[in-house]
Write a structure and sequence with these properties.
Homodimer. Its EC number is 2.6.1.-. This is Aminotransferase. One of its GO terms (molecular function) is transaminase activity. This protein is α/β, with parallel strands linked by helices. It has two domains: about 1-40 and about 275-370, Aspartate Aminotransferase, domain 1; about 60-270, Aspartate Aminotransferase, domain 2, CATH 3.40.640. About 40% of the residues lie in helices and about 15% in strands. It has twelve helices and 14 strands. The protein has helices at about 15-20, 40-50, 65-75, 90-105, 120-125, 145-150, 175-185, 240-255, 260-270, 275-295, 320-330, 360-370; strands spanning about 1-5, 30, 85, 110-115, 130-135, 155-160, 190-195, 215-220, 235, 300, 310-315, 335, 335-340, 350-355. The strands form three sheets. An eight-stranded mixed sheet has the order 1-5-4-6-7-8-9-3, sandwiched between helices. A four-stranded antiparallel sheet has the order 10-11-14-13, covered by helices on one side. Strand 10 (about 300) and strand 11 form a beta hairpin. Helix 3 (about 65-75) crosses helix 9, helix 4 packs across helix 8 (about 240-255) and helix 10 runs parallel beside helix 12 (about 360-370).
Length: about 375
């Protein structure tokens, strides 16, 4: 268990991306989680339809989000639309949830997994809280007993991400339920980021909303599932006693979100068939297979994701430091994220994003590079 109250203030994503951009050779970008596949056809059509709308439709909407979108999400998630706030991506959704955890005045500590998506501890610090990381099991799954041992009266919230970035683990709903019990015992919130819910290869993913607990916040967005990270359309589902304060904070910071983006997403939700999402999963399965097969040739140890679209790899004698990531960019032409950016548990590893159709080529480059070392 590691306390981190000032780490991750400046996530390394953009530093790595800029280093790759400035390289004097061709580099396969496996850093960003920006999907390279097509968004739903209905989303493009929704934007075109909106562009031809009346001037009144170009004005402010309700701060909590476009009504038709909130009602569509609510119906799909089996919750009351009044509990929903449509946000500027999952990033704001998580910020609002963590801010509400602090405002409850029931502690100032956030329990996070290790490894962890770096923006969570950054938000904790920004909100005046402290982040404590609890290492996951060797298979990447959350350590319920570890969370229970770490929880205390100082805990404001436990934050989970499933399917997980960077490990690819899909947490069993029974484990999530146990952690919800832990949070309740210490009067904390459980915040579950489900942004990768459409990228479940295990068939086991089940939303924390099915637990129907009054202290659980679930966040998500359409950035990944519809390949629209630039649209910034996400949402949070709050307990009834917290939603008004979250809505007010959202309004004071943003006034409201993007109306055309939300309108396009609403149309896409209504008209996009399940085959769209399955086709994307099929593409990712092929990339995972090709990438890990080539990693075998490189003699690497690696994770095979149960969900999301990241692979962690460990190369003998080549820990996942920023220096080594830069070395791979310069000498192999492949850009990944240093494991140390996500915490201590996987600091020997390097994370690779499969959001590129050059994944197999990148793996071949890595195999050639390490064969020559």
């Amino acid at each position: 268990m590691t306390d981190t109250d000032d780490a991750y203030d400046e996530p390394l994503f953009y530093r790595v991306i800029q280093y790759a951009v400035d390289a004097d050779r061709d580099v396969v970008d496996m850093v960003s989680g920006n999907p390279d596949w097509e968004p739903p056809t209905a989303l493009r059509e929704g934007l075109k339809t909106y562009a031809d709308g009346e001037p009144r439709d170009f004005q402010y909407q309700a701060s909590e989000g476009l009504r038709v979108l909130r009602e569509e999400i609510a119906a799909r998630r089996n919750v009351d639309a009044s509990r929903l706030v449509v946000t500027n991506g999952a990033g704001e959704a998580n910020y609002l949830a963590m801010a509400e955890a602090m405002e409850r005045d029931a502690g100032a500590e956030f329990l996070l997994t290790d490894p962890v998506y770096p923006y969570y501890p950054g938000k904790a610090t920004m909100l005046g809280g402290e982040a404590t990381r609890v290492p996951v099991h060797d298979d990447g799954h959350v350590d319920v007993a570890g969370m229970r041992a770490a929880a205390s009266a100082d805990t404001a919230a436990i934050v989970l991400n499933t399917p997980n970035n960077p490990t690819g683990a899909v947490y069993d709903i029974d484990a999530v339920a146990e952690i919800a019990d832990v949070a309740a015992e210490v009067d904390a919130l459980l915040i579950v980021d489900e942004v990768y819910d459409h990228f479940d290869f295990s068939g086991r993913f089940e939303s924390a909303l099915t637990l129907d607990r009054d202290h659980v916040v679930v966040t998500s967005s359409f950035s990944k599932s519809m390949a629209i990270t630039g649209f910034r359309v996400g949402y949070a589902v709050f307990p009834e006693d917290l939603v008004e304060a979250a809505r007010t904070r959202h309004m004071l910071v943003n006034v409201t979100g993007s109306r055309p983006a939300q309108a396009a997403v609403a149309q896409a939700l209504d008209e996009t068939p399940p085959s769209y999402y399955e086709s994307v999963r099929d593409t990712l399965r092929e990339r995972i297979d090709a990438f890990t097969t080539a990693l075998d040739a490189a003699g690497a140890e690696y994770t095979t994701p149960e969900g999301a679209f990241y692979v962690l790899a460990r190369f003998d004698g080549f820990p996942g430091t920023m220096d080594n990531v830069e070395r791979l960019i310069d000498e192999a032409g492949v850009a990944g994220m240093p494991g140390e950016a996500f915490g201590d548990a996987y600091d020997d590893w390097i994370r690779f994003s499969l959001c590129t159709d050059r994944a197999a080529e990148a793996a071949d480059r890595l195999a050639e590079y390490f064969a020559g070392r």
